[in-house]
Every structure is written in C-alpha cells, then in structure tokens.
Specification:
The chain is an alpha/beta fold and about 350 residues long. It has twelve helices and twelve strands.
Length: about 350
Amino acid sequence: MSPRAVILGCAGPVLSEDERRLFNAGDPLGFILFARNVIDPEQVRTLTADLRASVGRADAPILIDQEGGRVQRLRPPHWRAAPPAARFGTIFARDPKAACEAARLNARLIAVECLSLGIDVICAPVGDVPGPDSHDVIGDRAFGRDPAAVIALAEATALGIADMGATPIIKHLPGHGRAQADSHHELPIVTTSRADLLAVDVRVFKALAHLPWAMTAHVRFTALDPERAGTISPTVIDFIRHQIGFAGVLISDDLAMNALGGDPESRAAAALGAGCDVALYCAGTLDSAAALLASVPQLTDRAAARILAGRLRIDAAVRAEPQRWRGRLDALMGDLVT
C-alpha cells in the first residue's frame, strides 16, 4: 500500500505520542524539519529515527531547508554557518571555475551534515533569478541575476548534494525571482510576458530539468494562467512538465503559506489535482496534519516511480573528506572575495 502523497512537519524537537499514533495510522510519504525541531545532533538523529519508525519505512524522505545564509535550519554552534548563494555569484563574476568548485564543496559539506542526522533530502539549490524590483524574500538566496551564472552554480550545488548520496530539490518552478511580494504572506502576481519568462526564468529551470526533485512557486503568472497560482494551476504544471521538461518529483511549496486561500485540505487537493506529485505542509499542527492525512490520496504509481528513479540516480561515490573540503572552500572564498 502506498503512503499518502504528503510531507508533513512536526511540532517540536521530540515526537509526541499523539504525532506518533497519527503518522502510524495516516502514513505520510515523509517529513520536513524546521528550526523548532532542532536542538543538537543527537536530538535530531533521535527525531529522524522516530519519524521513520512512526511510518515503518526506513526510506521515508526527511527534508530540510539548508540553503545557507538566512535560510538554514541547522546553525552554529553545532553546525557550520554556510554562506548565502549570492556570495558564490560574486565569486563567479571574477572566476567562474573557482565559484563552481566552491559551490560544489559547500554543498557537499551541507549534505554530510544533513546525512549524519538522518536527513536525506535538501531543499536547495534556488534557481530563481531576481528582477530589479523584486521582493527580498529571495534576495541573496539567489546566485545572482545572470541566468548563465545561476545555471552553473545551481548545477554545482545540486551535484555537491548528490555526490554524498542526498537528494537536492531545485526551487521554485517556474520562477519566484520576479515576485514583488512575499508568498509567505500574500500571493505575488507576476505580469512579465511569456517571452521574457522564457528568456530568463524558464531558461534556468530548463537547463536544470534533469534534477530529481523540484518545488513549485506560489506565484500567479498572468502570461501562463491569469487566475491561479502556479502550484495549483494545471496550466502551469503542464508548462513545467512540457515546456521546461521537468520529469522528476514535483512537490508543492509549503501549503501553510498565506499565498493560497482555503483550508489545508483544499490547498492540497488543488495542488495534487493540478499535477503536483506531493503536497508539502510544514506547520506541524496536529489538527491540520490529521485533516490532511484523512483527505490526501495515496501516492500515484507515476509519482512513486519518479521517487524511485530519483533515488537510483543518486550515487554516493565521493569519499567523505569534509576537513579537506572545508580548507579548500575557505581558501577559495577567502582568496576570491577579499
């Protein structure tokens, strides 16, 4: 029997008995961790083991946002403070080869930390290209405004994550960079022409369409669908599949964000109905999780095949040498940014 096509958050650093029973009965596909779930390495390892035990699947994916900069759930003193994506873009302008090496090493270090905790899916890299008037919700999370640089650095980051056997998620398709509002709070509306989207935003994601997982954008693109946000638009999801050419696992952005109307169940139904493979709901509230598990369907055979194909493509062939990588990364960034 397939799990439910939803990934859920949990409330705190320890799995409660109520959560354990709910997840055991409801069988979500996997879980996502936030800062509220993180204290120290041993605690996180216990939590990830308990989450997988609750659904009885050792391969249940556990996600985390660990981009670097202001979006990283694992922070000092127990974990490294990774630089924001924009810093690699600054280096790229001076030395593209060194920037890509640094991005890949940085991503390997992130993956090593995550995998040591039982976290195997990393919500990075960001492939968005900000515009001149964009909201700062993306900001320095983006590698820059040059699509060629974003493609190269996002590719290097995804390779670094995959080198260690973790799964990268490229985000946010078909592009969040032009948004002039924060989708955590309201629905951004992008009026850019289709031609301009194809020339910049879509160019990036088309070049990265081979990656195993991708995340949608809670943004309404009037040139693609004048009425619905990308996550819940069959037209936009079809565009992602056929114009961008993404054939991997497509997961919604967090359905607890205020960009979308309705209750969690209707949001999830709309996202899955539009063509997303998996709904993501990060709030960690028991009532919402219960409602979702009662309403979200099982993973489709096609989605299950995409997940399996993504796993088969990840080969942890690189020998872990984090101390050597850290020294090389520090040298690259210190030499090229000063």
